[in-house]
Design goal:
Elements (H helix, E strand, L loop, with lengths): L1 E2 L3 E3 L5 E3 L7 E2 L10 E4 L2 E4 L7 E6 L13 E6 L13 H4 L15 H10 L4 E4 L8 H13 L3 E6 L5 H7 L5 E5 L5 H8 L5 H12 L4 E8 L7 H14 L6 E5 L14 H13 L5 E4 L9 E2 L6 E6 L2 E4 L2 E2 L2 E2 L19
Helix pairs in contact: 2-3, 7-8
The structure holds iron/sulfur cluster.
């Protein structure tokens, strides 16, 4: 249990959490929407500081991050809970645990231990992933600060709904923002995630790039009948182009039936390829098909000279045509992060 960093005290021992865009007002003895922040006696506590549900040395391609330190390993840490309640969650056992303390049998990993583990596992960085990193914000912040001191890269795999205040707090210590833009309509986000204001995800994502110069990659899991219409896909692709730039990678990934969406079929390959076409027509230079190992749209080719630059199969990547962030054949800028850039401090 760790006192929350971003909250204000209200009257009658109530508090308001400022960690994510729910901005929960929480009465004495109650929890926020994510069930990981708890008001005890007018003080807000994060309940799962350092409480891990999952720990692994993953290829960075698994996040997926394709243009960020390719072929490296990231120490990947997940905790418990989520501020979304997605009907198709792939990790629902850890994101929707039963009420109580699901971490009782799990391992505490302090920020210092995480750094040591990353180094001993030959990882070049740390990723907070598997569940929403915002839900153990204080822990990820402490760990990110330590990671930067130890020359490790840092990654949020996020639904993008943390507050601008939280983003600005962790911004100086975060290198990559792997964000889901799950759809592009009020009705879709309301039905799938239950959040009230999905456009806040777009605002914070743009801020991560513009203000904090994070490397940004976007994922959209294409769910049959939910977000596979041209209007939403064109909306996402155009938004990425206009706000993050045409060199931003967009991963369109295959849905498999999970959790409360066992009634829908896996995404047909033709739908996935159509989504890739929509991205390219919108002007995005790097559109990738995900969860289809061996598909040609896993590879990176140069948009200028057409040469193969990175060949992938699932989580394996072989870099054949890059020189730093440029195509080694024609010199075109490819938007690869292979060194941690100088960061702004405000
Ligand atoms: S992190 Fe978000 S969902 Fe959880 S208590 Fe804070 S505002 Fe509510």
């Amino acid at each position: 249990m760790h006192e929350a960093m971003l909250y204000e005290k209200l009257s009658d021992s109530r508090v308001q959490c400022h960690t994510c865009q729910w901005y929960c007002r929480i009465g004495q003895g109650k929890f926020g929407v994510c069930r990981m922040y708890h008001n005890r006696g007018g003080i807000l506590y994060n309940m799962n500081y350092a409480k891990t549900s999952s720990v692994a040395a993953d290829p960075i391609e698994k996040k997926p991050l394709f243009h960020f330190f390719p072929s490296t390993l990231a120490l990947s840490l997940g905790s418990w809970g989520c501020n979304f309640h997605c009907q198709h969650c792939q990790n629902w056992e850890i994101s929707c645990p039963p009420p109580g303390e699901p971490w009782l049998d799990s391992r505490d990993i302090s920020p210092q231990t995480a750094i040591e583990l990353a180094k001993s596992s030959h990882c070049q960085g740390i990723a907070w992933t598997y569940n929403e990193p915002t839900i153990w914000f204080e822990y990820t912040l402490d760990s990110a600060k330590l990671a930067k001191k130890n020359n490790l890269y840092t990654v949020y795999v996020t639904n993008g709904y943390l507050s601008p205040q939280a983003l600005d707090t962790i911004g100086p210590y975060l290198d990559a923002w792997r964000v889901d833009i799950k759809g592009f309509s009020d009705s879709f986000y309301r039905e799938l995630t239950k959040i009230p204001r999905w456009r806040g995800i777009l605002e914070v994502t743009k801020r991560a790039k513009d203000k904090w110069q994070m490397h940004v990659e976007v994922v959209t899991n294409i769910i049959p009948t939910m977000n596979d219409d041209d209007q939403q896909l064109e909306g996402i692709a155009s938004w990425i182009r206009d706000n993050l730039g045409e060199l931003t990678p967009w991963h369109v990934t295959r849905f498999y039936p999970q959790h409360n969406m066992m009634n829908l079929p896996p995404t047909p390959l033709a739908t996935l390829e159509h989504a890739c076409d929509i991205g390219r027509k919108a002007g995005l230079e790097f559109v990738y098909a995900g969860n289809v190992p061996g598909h040609k749209d896993e590879n990176t080719t140069c948009y200028h000279c057409g040469k193969l630059l990175v060949q992938r199969f699932g989580y394996q990547a072989e870099v054949t045509g890059l020189e730093d962030s440029r195509c080694r054949f024609c010199g075109a800028e490819i938007n690869f992060r292979v060194g941690v850039a100088e960061r702004r401090s405000s």
